[in-house]
Amino acid sequence: MVDTSTAEPLAVHKACILSAANEVLRGRKICFESDSKEAISWVEDEDFKNFMPVEVIHDIRSKLRLLDNASLNFVPRGANSMEDGLAKRGLVLEGENVVWNVF
């Protein structure tokens, strides 16, 4: 079982892996959104000692550099109904779920 402070960076990591592997997305503007200020601070700052899989943070940073037009932004949970809905849906589904939105 993964706790919430670990789940968010792992979800961002998975999104970065999937995006970096998709050649169509390279060079396009990509915005990863998270409702976890802590997860974002771990990616942006050097102080992430509370998060044990350090290699995950380093790989997120590497993928963001590879994507070069990608950003990771904080969006409060109440302000993003799509993200909140996907999170709730993920609680009841098993396996991996991928949803792409192109704006």
UniProtKB/TrEMBL annotation:
InterPro entries: RNase_H-like_dom_plant, RNaseH_domain, RNaseH_sf
Gene3D superfamilies per the UniProt record, alphabetical: Ribonuclease H-like superfamily/Ribonuclease H
Pfam families: RVT_3 (PF13456)
GO MF annotation terms: nucleic acid binding; RNA-DNA hybrid ribonuclease activity
Residue ranges occupied by any RNase H type-1 domain in the UniProt entry: 28-89
Coiled coil regions, renumbered to chain: none
Protein name: RNase H type-1 domain-containing protein
Lineage: Eukaryota, Viridiplantae, Streptophyta, Embryophyta, Tracheophyta
